[in-house]
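quick one if you have a minute, typing this from the bus. below you get a single protein, a line of residues and a line of whole numbers that encode the local backbone shape. could you go over both lines and see whether the tokens make sense for that sequence. anything you notice is useful, everything is just below.
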Amino acid sequence: MKQKKRGKKGTVFGILALLFVLFKSKVFIGFLLGIATFLLGHKSVKITSTDRFCESCHVHPHSTISWKKSTHYDNDSGVPVHCVQCHLPPEGLAYLAEKAKTGARDVYGKIFKDTDKIDWDEKSKLEHAVLHTYEASCIHCHQNLFPLKLSKKGEEAHLYYTRKADVLRCINCHLHVGHYSELAEQEFQLGVQEEKDKIVFDAATRIERFESFVEKIPGSSVSFEMIAIPGGTFTMGSPVTEPYRRPDEGPRREVTISPFWIGKLEVTWDEYEAFYKQTKREGRTDTQMHLIDSSEKIDAVSGPTPPYGYPDQGWGKGKRPAITMTYYAATVYCQWLSQVTGKNYRLPTEAEWEFAARGGTTTPYFFAGNPKKFTRLSMLNRMFGPDTSGINSYVNYRENSRGRTRPPDGLRPNPFGLVSMPGNVREFCSDWYAADVLVSDPEYQPIIDPTGPTKGTEHVIRGGSYKSDAVQVRASARDFTRHDAWMVTDPQIPKSLWWYSDCVDVGFRVVCEYREEGY
């Protein structure tokens, strides 16, 4: 027994001696420091992940207010969703890495940036929001995409998401669930005042001379200006020496254009609402268009189904340019306008558009200025800001738009009297797009009224928009529709013929064909 007791004491003394040696050694000190660092780091992460800590240095002035009004805070369950649950990955090293990066960015912004100059409405848009939310975090909480109380519309949307999860994100449809927006609560409506009586049509405006005129849309109080564009010959495309020229802007060719009228402005929401009001049928789906009674005067042209979301983006309608309609919808609008006015309205050809946009000038813009001075694509301009003094009064584009369309007030016209040709919204043309559209035409013989390729997959769009850099608002700049890409978020089966779900900066203006015998 005594030997056993002596053995136990020896073991205890041995352990104590070992601990004493370790305590004296650097290994043990490092071990203790490691434990302390881990515990302190864990505590620091916990503290800096609280909503209160996020509020303490976040520079967004109303992020907390909008969060507390949202369904992520004010909900039936009473369980709030916290800042880090959306704005950081759900767990692991990715969580810590993004937390460090996000924290450093916010601290830098609070100390060095003038937060009063930040356009928070612009920063709240989808293209910015996707950079600060994580799909994995959405799925981490919302593991069941088909709960019992999900609406029929929600079921269709979530089913579509499961099939397109590689290209869609939850925030595409649920942008405002984490930060409340009154816009999200308002259902977009066009032509809300339904007329029960048959529409009485006024006599169409008669044109006896080739001069600018005001068109009044029959059956409405809406009118718009059409500008007479004299025929002429111009050089279409841009010279190889033009700064930021793209290959599809040439080769340059002499083009002769016959006289025509073109809208002073892009088609406004007021004008598009008149179309919607006179042709819509509530509840009709795109597959039911053939069932509409064509014996009624207006319904011979079938108008848009109700929009899925809010196409005006909450910026307002009125004299702002109408946006988010499909190319098909724009062409049907022209057919309807032709029918109710007795004139021949259509989309402009690409050649007509450029001829009108140039207004008789041959420079990159119809006003004085060099794209090198106006653009943000150069390193110096990115660092110090572009010189916008010669462009801001003519164009609504990225540098002065505050991320949205605007009414025409305050914008100066081009030499033909047309407003917003270079910017505000990009505009549909009737031509199919081809990168080498003028290559096959003779070099030394003028081309007369070209209409573009006989077939294609996408259509030409011309001009820039409120999202465009100054390079993209040059008179010769070209682009084309991307129909499938602009319909990705739309979950409807079939997808809408009338509304784009993912393109918010394209509209159109109309052309009226000139007839020598008059209208």
In short: Residues 181 and 518 are 51 Å apart (CA to CA). The chain has a mean pLDDT of 83. The radius of gyration is 31 Å.
